[in-house]
Each structure stands twice: as structure tokens, then as C-alpha cells.
Amino acid sequence: MKRFDGRVAFVTGAAHGQGRAAAVAFAGEGAHVAAFDVARPLAYPGYTMGSAGELASLRAECEALGSTCLTFEGDVRDGAAVAAAVEDTVARLGAVDVLFNNAGICAYGLAHELTEAAWDAMIDINLKGVWMVARAYVKLFPRENDLGGDRGLRLRQGVDGGSGPRHPDHRAGAGGLRHHRRGEGVRQGEDRPPGPG
Ligand SMILES: NC(=O)c1ccc[n+]([C@@H]2O[C@H](COP(=O)([O-])OP(=O)(O)OC[C@H]3O[C@@H](n4cnc5c(N)ncnc54)[C@H](O)[C@@H]3O)[C@@H](O)[C@H]2O)c1
């Protein structure tokens, strides 16, 4: 019996980086995975985002582990795309047990060096995007998240973090998330994907 046998994990920012590692870890522990990623370059930041090819290779990797993996190309800032992916996941795999709300960006700049567009992109993705994804789930299962015990959504926000003078926008997003979590009807559950120990 694996730790997440038969459970469903919805992972954003799943094409590469931490999100991909989490998706593979959940699949390795028996979960079915819904992998959501923008899968294309963004105007900001300029570094490489995930790709459609990475989503396809993730699906193959999860399937090799015996897991079903649905893939979705979409931006967490696009409420309609997020809602459609969550609804499709629930229709095909059943209720989501783990929401690994990880899609995010991290760019560097002192406060006075950042452009308004850079600040807006960071806040839109790292703060509003996390809320958009959580909202899509909670809308479908408002009561389930009030339940105690072992079930109910486990919410993990990968974008938390970022410190130092070159992360003013990242820190603002992370601070906003902490306040958002306190007021959110979603219980804070396991804080990390399955791993050794
Ligand atoms: N890696 C670290 O040490 C670390 C530490 C603290 C916080 N974080 C934060 O965690 C998050 C993930 O980190 P990472 O190192 O895996 O980053 P990464 O850049 O390697 O991967 C991020 C993934 O999210 C996707 N993504 C980005 N914007 C998106 C959007 N708008 N909609 C949908 N998908 C989107 C990308 O395509 C990519 O696949 C980032 O916000 C990062 O700042 C990372």
C-alpha cells in the first residue's frame, strides 16, 4: 500500500522544477496526477518556462509509475482555463485530494529597479494565481473542506518564500498569501510532497 494510493493530486507549474518533482513524487506514491502549466514563454520573466514537451514527458514518466496523468496547458492568471482544468480533472479522476499550488515566478531586482509591469506580473501570478486555483477547487467542494480528519484538501503553496532586497515583489506576494491562507476556508494540510523520511 503506497502513501497516496488512489488519491488525486492537482499540481500547478508541473512541467519542470519543483512542481514536476512533486508530480513525479505523488505518482510514485500511487496518486493520479493532474499537471497544469503555462507551457510557453511569458513576456515576463525572460527565463525559460515549462513546455508542452515537458508536460508530455511528465505524463509518460507518471504512466511508467502506474499513475494516470492528465495534462493541461494554461496560465494560472486565466480563471476560465483554471476552472476548466479543475472541472475536467474531477470529472475524469474524481475529487482532488491534494492541491499543490506551486506555479510561480521569481525574478530579481531592487525595489527601485523593478518596472510596474514586472511587479504586476509577480503579484498576478504568485498571489492572484494561487487564489484563482484554490477558488476553482473550493467552489466545487465548499463543504468537503470543512470536514476534519484525513480527507479534505491539502493545500501546499510552493510560491511561498523569497527573501533579501532583490525580492521585494516576491516577498509582497508571499506575505499576501499568508494572509489569504488565514482567511481561506481551505485547511492547511501536509506541507510538502512525499519524499524520503
Ligand atoms: N526553487 C527554489 O529554491 C524556490 C524557493 C522558494 C520559492 N520558490 C518558488 O516556487 C515556485 C516554483 O519554483 P521552481 O524553482 O520550481 O520554478 P521553475 O521556474 O523551475 O518552475 C515553475 C513552473 O511554473 C510554471 N509557471 C510559471 N508561471 C506560470 C503561470 N502563470 N501559469 C502556469 N504555470 C506557470 C512554469 O512554466 C514552470 O514549469 C516559484 O514561484 C519560486 O519562486 C522556489
In CATH, what is the homologous superfamily? NAD(P)-binding Rossmann-like Domain
Number of domains: 1
* CATH architecture assignment name: 3-Layer(aba) Sandwich
Strand order of the largest sheet: 3-2-1-4-5
Total DSSP E strands: 5
Q: In CATH, what is the class?
A: Alpha Beta
Give the SSE string. EHEHEHEHEH
Structural class: alpha/beta
| Distinct small molecules | nicotinamide-adenine-dinucleotide
N- and C-termini, Cα separation = 16 Å
Helix content: 40-55%
Q: Compute the number of helices.
A: 5
CATH-defined fold name: Rossmann fold
Radius of gyration (CA) equals: 16 Å
Largest sheet: 5 strands, parallel
Question: What features would you highlight for this structure?
Answer:
197 residues; alpha/beta; Rossmann fold; five-stranded parallel β-sheet; 5 helices; globular; binds nicotinamide-adenine-dinucleotide
